[in-house]
Design goal:
The structure holds two protein chains of two kinds. Chain A is of the alpha+beta class. Chain A contains two helices and twelve strands, in the order H-E-E-E-E-E-E-E-E-E-H-E-E-E. Chain A has two domains: 33 residues; 118 residues, no CATH class. In chain A, strands 1, 2, 3, 4, 5, 6, 7, 8, 9, 10, 11 and 12 form a twelve-stranded mixed sheet that branches. In chain A, strand 10 and strand 11 form a beta hairpin. Chain A is globular and about 35 Å long. By secondary structure, chain B is an alpha+beta fold. Chain B contains four helices and nine strands, in the order H-E-E-E-E-E-H-E-H-E-H-E-E. The interface between A and B is large, with 67 and 66 residues. Strand 11 of chain A pairs antiparallel with strand 2 of chain B, so a sheet runs across the interface.
């Protein structure tokens, strides 16, 4: 009995280890220390614009301060930032990560602008650090986020 | 002369007839359609309840005016001629307007708490077993990343506890790396005694504060 139990726990350990290794292989080396977060979900056509360049967004891609996420008519994208903020945009959306400053032991700052489309947000640690630390801009308003979950649509600026 | 007068009378009659006809046609024509309603050009924000039913708050600012939303489904429209319109949305409205954005949301980060033996960087035996659960959470997520945050109780100076908490976090990070997690996906931080799980006075040995929190996102 003792031996059986040990064997089972051993094989479970191996399985878990195996899963870990598979994970490791799935992690493409696209991330870097400059990243504010990573793309976690992609549907349809999604681009990341950085410094005038436009690249297709893939799951695992890094997202940095000053990046713009653009979704096509069939597109949607979900990003998790390093402070555990969750951002997800629906079709025909343009979302700019204007500012991301985060250190667990210092007050940080997160500013995003939704110039077009729809966005769902679950705020993370930055919003908890100070009342004005997280802001979302739309064409007509500025949202000061004191927590935690909300949705935004930006239509005021569209033609 | 008479013939001329008669002819001119006939012309007048014709003119009258034409006028009557024109008026009749004008009256019969449907009224001009009302101007189409302007396309929805308002921005819309809706505060949602969290999975535990709790709501936060959002301060909506437009042209120097501010409205605070702090109840479930409280909403505001902005961009309608400077007139911010607070109102109440419904779960159905949110589902229909934001279905795509909501379904693209990444999985919620999950946090595991591992405890340490006092003044050491050694796990308690129960915490050793939790590590398997952490590995399962990692395996089930797209492009997983981890934050490993070390914490201490309030015995000792800030400096001592910052160093001890970072040492605990690094020990956990090394263990995760040994299990196959790429170092670039783990961030180890030392929170010292800043974030007590159980609030105590300074200088109190509290086992539940001696911990490392692994957040998988």
């Amino acid at each position: 009995m003792q031996t059986g139990c040990r064997t089972r726990s051993r094989s479970r350990e191996m399985l878990v280890l195996g899963l870990g290794v598979v994970c490791a292989m799935l992690w493409a080396g696209q991330a870097s220390a400059q990243d504010a977060g990573r793309v976690k979900t992609v549907k349809g056509t999604v681009y990341i614009e950085r410094g005038g360049q436009r690249e297709l967004a893939l799951v695992g891609a890094g997202v940095r301060q000053a990046d713009t996420l653009v979704t096509g008519p069939d597109g949607a994208v979900g990003v998790t930032l390093a402070d555990d903020t969750l951002l997800s945009a629906g079709p025909n959306s343009v979302l700019v990560i204007e500012k991301f400053v985060y250190d667990a032991n210092q007050p940080g700052s997160l500013e995003t602008a939704l110039t077009k489309g729809t966005l769902a947000v679950v705020s993370g640690r930055i919003a908890k650090q100070a009342p004005d630390a997280m802001r979302v801009k739309t064409p007509a308003a500025i949202l000061g986020v004191r927590g935690t979950e909300f949705v935004v649509r930006a239509s005021a600026g569209s033609p | 002369m008479r013939a001329l007068a008669r002819r001119s009378g006939g012309r007048r009659l014709l003119l009258l007839l034409g006028l009557v006809l024109a008026v009749a046609v004008a009256c019969a024509a449907p009224p001009p359609p009302p101007p189409a309603p302007p396309p929805t050009r308002a921005d819309l924000v809706v505060l949602l309840p969290g999975p535990d039913g709790k709501v936060g708050a959002i301060a909506v600012q437009e042209d120097g005016r501010e409205t605070v939303l702090n109840t479930p489904y409280a909403s505001a429209r902005t961009g309608v001629g400077g007139q911010m319109e607070p109102s109440q949305a419904s779960a159905e409205e949110v589902r229909s307007l934001f279905a795509d954005a909501l379904s693209a949301a990444p999985p919620r980060p999950i946090t595991f708490v591992l405890y340490f033996i006092e003044a050491t960087d050694q796990f308690t035996p129960e915490s050793q077993a939790l590590v398997d659960q952490v590995m399962v959470a990692i395996a089930s997520r797209p492009a997983p990343e981890l934050t490993v945050a070390g914490h201490t109780d309030t015995v000792g100076t800030d400096q001592y506890n910052d160093a001890l908490s970072l040492r605990r976090a690094e020990r956990v990070r090394d263990m995760l790396i040994a299990r196959g997690i790429p170092p670039s996906s783990i961030r180890a931080i030392g929170r010292g005694k800043r974030e007590l799980r159980v609030p105590t006075a300074d200088g109190v040995a509290e086992p539940r504060n001696r911990r490392v929190e692994i957040t998988v996102r």
